[in-house]
Specification:
about 80 residues, mainly alpha, elongated
Length: about 80
């Protein structure tokens, strides 16, 4: 679990990902973990998930707290300036 994969296995998995990602694009999602041991791979995946969740919650909070811009009765148009002259 804490041992790094052997170099032959890493090279083979990289070749498999490069070939199979044409047919199965989802394999690219975990390609960056190929050279990690199991514990590190789990930790990296957990950190990535926490980061995505944190960014998603920031986006939701920002949209919930923001109010729509105030609108006045008259909107200035660029063409209105020409007519006033």
């Amino acid at each position: 679990m804490t041992r790094t994969p052997c170099q032959n296995a890493i090279e083979l998995l990289n070749r498999v990902v490069s070939i199979q990602s044409v047919h199965w694009p989802v394999v690219r999602r975990w390609a960056h973990l190929i050279d990690s041991n199991f514990i590190d791979a789990q930790r990296k995946e957990k950190e990535e998930c926490e980061t995505v969740n944190a960014l998603a919650s920031l986006t939701v909070r920002q949209s919930l707290n923001s109010s729509p811009p105030e609108t006045s009765g008259h909107v200035e148009e660029p063409m209105d300036e020409d007519n006033d002259k």
